[in-house]
Amino acid sequence: MTIEERKLTPAGQGNLQQIKLGIPVVEALNRMAEDPMGENEKLLLRILEQNKDTEYGRKYGFANIHSIEEYQKKVPVSVYDDYAGYILRMSEDGEENLITSGKVVHYNKSSGTVGNPKRIPLTEEAFQVFQKYNGPYRMGLVAKELGEDWINGRNMSIAESIAEIQHVKSGVTYGALSVKMIGEFRPYLGMSFTSPDEAIYPESETNTRYLHARFGLMDQDLTNMAANFLGFLLEVLRYMEQHWELLVNDIEQGTIDLGIKMSEEVRSSLLKKIQPMPERAQELRGIFMQGFEKPIVPKLWPHAQFLTGVGSGGFKVYADKIKEKYMGEKIARYFTGINASEGMISVPYRLNDEKSVPVPDSMFYEFLPTDADDDFSKIVTIDQLETGKEYEVIVTNLSGFYRYRMRDAVKIAGKYKNLPILEFIGRIDQTVSIMGEKTTEVALRTAAEDTAKQLGFDMIDFTVYPDVEHVPPRYIYFMEIESLPEGMKAKEIRFFLERNLAKANPSMGDKVAKGICASTKLNILEPETYSLYRDLMIMKGIAPAQLKPVHIIRNELQRKFFFSQTEYGVGLVK
């Protein structure tokens, strides 16, 4: 398709520029896929050469390492604590050349799943890799697979950030990586995104679900949707379903209902950006009145062609619900790969597949079998992976981490050319063990999802608490359920949940059968519990892009919150 750039909308011009940058990146990855080990080894040797004169490089003799084998013998496997002292000197005192010779332009604030948030250094070179694969690569891959008919439309991006960014004492910025990335793009947000600045950089009391939904609905020509974590996009779509009459009335009249929470300053600013749209409102009202039995997104936005977001691991349930209920089969899905504060681990190699492939020019990869019991002699490189086997990812990145344990587990699902295809399993530390049964988050999620499917109800989300105070110890499931089939009782859900958990983790089932562990308890949560938790965390200063699902309760704040939202509980059913 030949595109006349001068005839494009501002969004189209921006999209075209990204496609032009992205096509060569897609082609380069395809070339690297022919010999990924060779490319990855070259990257490692370049990293060692660049950092041989750093304090860390001198300590481990980088200057005398000329092969992967020498590197593995001389440099130990590491964790964050091995760098904490260096990072403190870098971020507080401004010292340089400690773990990296590169210019540190930002410190990523980790999500702090376990323990306190960390400061992960990000060099200029690493940031450029993030930008290349998060923007141009995505647009290039979409264009290669879908063509460019979508190019002129805007994106309903459920992105939220904070306007004020923190700085460490050395003067370098500190915060979620997403905050830095969206900050770089801020001048162009209105051109590309449907959501206004007041939704992307919201005040704590602003009802952003309303703003994302309302401004998205105003744009008839929207062509794609995106969210860092698809759970929030699902919330916005549910809000749209529940409050469509209010949304349509406001679009029709050019008003913002007085019941929508926001400050008067924000309301005044927004009212200057909207005007009555009676024709669009009439069209929307007719679509909504047909109901939600069939996917509604293609009706609301007939030009919509693709969705972007994380769709693997704990996020797969949200991706599946969005597809099944709201989007249908026609809208393609670009599932972002494994992104971490430490670097770009993987990217999708095709649309509509949550699996991804490592990026040979992003970081040097090693893999430790998850059943190796920390026997580092069993670590393998990218060319030695076995299909069907699970591994922990170990990386050497462009920002000063060497043989660093990511604590992310992947399963090898096959090969794309000579690149391994990675299926994200979850965090190594995301397990529950009250009596040595080691139940993974995947098993907990599978039990909950299977129960919802078998009984035919829509589960909003679930959380599990390891109740070690109970005698004998037990798991407590919390579930938020949109609507139960008529006549269904909570004790029936608990019975199926127990059975499915035993299937997902036979060790747990065996311990319950023998009385070593008590039967699982189920607590039904009040409506809007997960939306409330998200709002609470944002009010406490957590960046929206860092809010991951709480599927395992890890701290006292989470415990108190979820127990406070319990409608009723169901214990042992004999």
TrEMBL record:
* Coiled coil region boundaries: none
Organism listed in the record: Blautia faecis
Task: Enumerate the spans annotated as GH3 C-terminal domain.
Answer: 444-556
What protein name applies here? GH3 auxin-responsive promoter family protein
Organism superkingdom: Bacteria
What is an example of a Pfam family matching this protein? GH3_M
Q: Which InterPro entries match?
A: GH3, GH3_C, GH3_M
Q: Where is the GH3 middle domain?
A: 358-427
